[in-house]
Amino acid sequence: MAWVAASPALALDSVEVNVIGIDDDNRAAVTSAVEAASLAFRSLDEPLESDADLFGVAVTDYARIIGGLYGEGFYGPAVSILIDGSEAAEIDPFNPPTQIGVITINVTPGPRFGFGALDVSPRPDSRQGTRLVKGFEPGRQARSGLIATAANTAVGEWRDEGHAKADVADQRIVARHDEALLDVTISLAPGPKLRFGTLTIDGDRDVSDKRVRQIMGFPTGEVYSPEELRDAVNRVRRTGVFATVSVAETDTPNPDGTLDYRMTLIEQKPRRFGFNVEFSSVEGLTLGGFWLHRNLFGGAERLRIEAQVQNLGGEQAGLQDRGGEDYTASMRLTRPGTFGADNDAFTFATFESTDDPDYKEDSFVFGIGVTRYFSSRLFGEVSGGLRYSEVSDAFGDRTFKHAVLPSRLEWDRRDDPGDAASGFFLGVRATPYVGIDGSQSGAVGELDLRGYLGFGANNTTVLAGRVQLGSVVGSDLDATPPDFLFFSGGGGTVRGQKYQSLGVDQPNGETSGGRSFLGVSGEVRQLIRGTIGAVAFVDVGYIGEDSFIDENAGFHAGAGIGARIGTAIGPIRVDLGTPVSDFGDRFSSVELYIGVGQAF
User: Fold this and answer.
1) Which of 35, 83, 215, 216 has the fewest Cβ atoms within 10 Å of its own Cβ atom?
2) Exposure pattern of 114-144 as b/e (b: 16+ CB <10 Å)?
3) This model's pTM is above 0.90
């Protein structure tokens, strides 16, 4: 029995749910199904405006509760809904009660049905003998949702084979109450195999038909494939130009076996701007912003200009006269659908002025590149350009000139990139560089692997882990631009430790970055109530002088706790970290980190 008191918005005092004639093992599941289906029960948390409305939803609850029981495999239920002791179905709808105090829902589910004889046909030759849907099998619990899933899956099999107009021709369901079995017969009408026909484009837009078709890569003349159609539509959405992208197929195929489509596009406002703010008690305040034009020349070209300043007001971890603000300004112009529908061409330029604890570097890089989308979750990028930098660090004042080939690959299988509860993320970056005018050649590589595992109802507990690897090969430590080297410490690596506090100590008493890095982070994220959550974390970092971590690598660690507050733009993050290793003086300080989104 479930009983919940109502809020004082109406006269309703309580809604009771009684499940009768069923064993304890199944009672909880049936009670939950009834509560989920009942609008009257839901009104306890979401009060209605009047008792007349409450009477109306109580009457409709008969059908809703029966549907919920079908979903659990009970096809012979008896449902009684009493309003202050009177059966709701027997109350005159033209003279409803003016005040409702107690609603009692009594449910006798009857026996739970299993699937009996099942027949879904015809199926494509390639799918003969395979299981259609897990659970849709003789003897398994006959949940009604599985029937709809089986029908949709069977239709999808034919559509995957090129039969765009496949549909359910007939469906027959027989409940054998004496045996508590449900027989299901689903007859399919595959229709003919079709090919993609012509595409008509309309709507409110400035991007030309020619460019839309180049970006979309609509497969005219090819055998129909729902995956090909999804990919084509997603290419248009990926540009970010359009607020609405809808595609509809014609009702009737053409005599030549083709099927025509109509696409409707509505553009967003072409210009957009945004900003970001982060704070750390060590690294100080970070302020950034961007300006974006989505359709610069009328061909869906994106121009994004960004600027950021970091370390405003932060403490410093190394030489005090070396610490200061870091400035970044960048531009990137992207043209989608270039050299193929799944390729974007781009040009870029970035200026950085870095004033970190142990080095200063002013650098400028520009170049061109291509992004390749292998799927909606996997893309790669290759570019080439020139890089110039002026440096002052532990090795003195120097100038570097390089031809660079920055490339990256990202595979994102997270359920929510901003607040993941399952899946993984893999990012790989590699930048070969060729020295000019005496600068040494080499390559820098980085790997970022993150994994997530949620537990409990709605993933209220999440285990999150991260591994970061970095290595510089080819160039000597003192002949590598410091921006290519690795430090550890701070919000992006080891929380609780001072910003970039771990590097490689030099004979002159100063510190440089290392040619190798290993970082490991672990978090336990716990949702406490509503959108409020708590986090416990441990971070570990290693920095090595050579290209690979060995026993001589420096080590430090940090740990702490944090809070998360869910918002429409992502969780607000507040973390407190402290050193837990001898390096950094164990428990000697507490650092504060504030930002939007999870730490990783």
Assistant:
1) 35
2) bbbebebeebbeebeeeebbeebeeeeebbb
3) no
